[in-house]
């Protein structure tokens, strides 16, 4: 008599269960990964702006005013990278005369279609604001700002 051989391979049900488990894990992991990438891009932009604070402070002490972002006061002349894939940097002076030392350094993220910027932060912005006493504050605007949960803890 011939002995029966054992079954080899997987059943259709077993394969369907594996596919379902992978689908559930992907549904959770992909959004978390996208959020992680967006947080990393925001942190990179914040580091770039934070590096500019020293040059802006020196400019403010030497000239008695915040840089306007035009002419010799352009971001590139104050140490900002000329080309950034993530977005654009701009300076805005907020005061004149005695209060002329206040202003903002704003970072606006590029569109996700044109660059490799996360869709969670595409065309959104945040800024570092300097008051007259030289204190810096990191914040986001309510209309086009980066979501608060994507900003580093010291920037809300």
Automatic annotation (TrEMBL):
<feature type="transmembrane region" description="Helical">
    <location>
        <begin position="12"/>
        <end position="30"/>
    </location>
</feature>
<dbReference type="GO" id="GO:0009289">
    <property type="term" value="C:pilus"/>
</dbReference>
<dbReference type="GO" id="GO:0007155">
    <property type="term" value="P:cell adhesion"/>
</dbReference>
<keyword id="KW-1133">Transmembrane helix</keyword>
<protein>
    <submittedName>
        <fullName>Prepilin-type N-terminal cleavage/methylation domain-containing protein</fullName>
    </submittedName>
</protein>
<keyword id="KW-0281">Fimbrium</keyword>
<dbReference type="GO" id="GO:0015627">
    <property type="term" value="C:type II protein secretion system complex"/>
</dbReference>
<dbReference type="InterPro" id="IPR045584">
    <property type="entry name" value="Pilin-like"/>
</dbReference>
<comment type="similarity">
    <text>Belongs to the N-Me-Phe pilin family.</text>
</comment>
<keyword id="KW-0488">Methylation</keyword>
<comment type="subunit">
    <text>The pili are polar flexible filaments of about 5.4 nanometers diameter and 2.5 micrometers average length; they consist of only a single polypeptide chain arranged in a helical configuration of five subunits per turn in the assembled pilus.</text>
</comment>
<dbReference type="InterPro" id="IPR012902">
    <property type="entry name" value="N_methyl_site"/>
</dbReference>
<dbReference type="GO" id="GO:0015628">
    <property type="term" value="P:protein secretion by the type II secretion system"/>
</dbReference>
<dbReference type="InterPro" id="IPR001082">
    <property type="entry name" value="Pilin"/>
</dbReference>
<dbReference type="InterPro" id="IPR000983">
    <property type="entry name" value="Bac_GSPG_pilin"/>
</dbReference>
<dbReference type="Pfam" id="PF07963">
    <property type="entry name" value="N_methyl"/>
</dbReference>
<keyword id="KW-0472">Membrane</keyword>
<dbReference type="Pfam" id="PF00114">
    <property type="entry name" value="Pilin"/>
</dbReference>
<keyword id="KW-0812">Transmembrane</keyword>
